[in-house]
Predict the structure.
Amino acid sequence: MVNQPISLSEKSQSQNSAGRAAWLDKKDLSAFQRDGYLVVRDLCKENVRNEMLKVVEESLYPALAPVEYEAEVHYPGSPPSRTSPGGDTPRRLLNAFARDEVFRRWAQSPEVIRHVGNLLQSDELQVSQNHHNCVMTKFPGYGSETGWHQDIRYWSFDRPELITAWLALGHEDRRNGSLIVIPGSHRNSYDRGQFDAALFFRTDVKKNQQLTSTAKVVELNAGDVLFFHCRLLHSAGRNQTDLVKLAVVFTYYAHDNQPISGTRSAEHPDIKLRTE
């Protein structure tokens, strides 16, 4: 894991200062506060994506540790063990920030920081090395589906106020297992009985079914970024195409919202993003 604070270059700082008006984009902020997510189109340019795809290919064939495999997540449709057919199908290339410079540049890029800073209303941000911080893969055949859940279910912070930036490296739709979200679900309070033992949202509960009936598929093109709140209920289906779906995913929080000591959220030092 990377341990040192990251300072933006003078050029990047100048870009951020010049872009302060964008941090006050009330339309985006209002939409995010209402829906719990925001899609920004073509935020990552093709040359950067191509750099990422080269690293991903070198990390997947063969798979370079650290890797989480489908057999380890125990989701519906995943192989029961590493020795089962498809058991060595990668689910996530972990530690993206430490894995390669191209991911570090993206995670702390002015484009991402500007939007996260606006949505969190903070100039002092940190990127987590404990949650997400990965390349999400979804392979055909053995790529499992993900049930309805909130990411905050396994995160431990002073406040449930974190934002994930999901960068699509290729097209994402229902056929290849894109994210499906329930708009506004981040603003609700839920009873413990609405979740199962693994804290997935139960589909056999009537009031849950009323919520999931309002779900929307988030279709993304290569370079689009989905920003979503840690309390937003979301799921994803299986990949029914012949191509691997890939996304680079990082999670951010304001500096005054700290991980709780002794939990997984504080296991590795997070990266301070100095934007001023």
Observations:
- Confidence is low (pLDDT under 50) at residues 3-22.
- The chain is about 25% helix and 20% strand.
